[in-house]
Amino acid sequence: MTFTKLFGKMDSMGVYGFMPVWFLFFFVSFGVMIMDDSVGVSRDFCAVSQIICCFNLCAMGYAVTNNMALSKANLLTGPLDMFVTWTAFAYYGGTAVFSSTPIGIFNNIQVPIMALMTIPTLIGLISVAKDPAGYQRYLAGESGSTEGV
Predict the structure, then answer these.
(1) What whole-number distance in Å separates Cα of residue 144 and Cα of residue 21?
(2) Cα 15–19–20 angle (5° rounding)?
(3) CA nearest 14: which of 70, 59, 72?
(4) Is 18 helix (H, G, I), strand (E, B) or coil?
(5) pLDDT in tens, 58-108
(6) Using CA atoms, how far apart are residues 101 and 112, in angstroms rounded to an integer?
(7) What is the 3-state secondary structure (H, E, C) of 24-93?
(8) Which of 39, 71, 92, 111 to pair with 149, CA 20 to 30 A apart?
(9) What residue segments make up the domains of the chain, in order of their start?
């Protein structure tokens, strides 16, 4: 697998392509938590997962202000977001975070999305760890950055 296949779509969309997605997640979760006054594990999990998700917004700001590929900045925050969210999911009892409240329903949406993001995040992280020079060649736009996983 090449780094272009792993990161090319993210880097071609760039910050402005991903910003609406992350802002949408933020504002929807913010609105749901403002409107739903329920308490308990669903709310606690949602708060933890969305607070840690804000680091991805910081990564976008870092990428913009440092003129770097989004994949590079995302390697700093994506795994953090993923591992903290999965740890919180386990801590709060797994499926106990799902409920019929608006927050519980939002959790029913965000957890499967996180599951879909887990595989490429892990593959990307392992690939860069395995071949950091190849990833640097990919970032530089050179051919030959094809090792990956």
Answers:
(1) 32
(2) 145
(3) 70
(4) helix
(5) 998 999 999 999 999 999 899 999 999 999 999 999 999 999 999 999 999
(6) 17
(7) HHHHHHHHHHHHCCCCCHHHHHHHHHHHHHHHHHHHHHHHHHCCCCHHHHHHHHHHHHHHHHHHHHHHCC
(8) 111
(9) 3-140
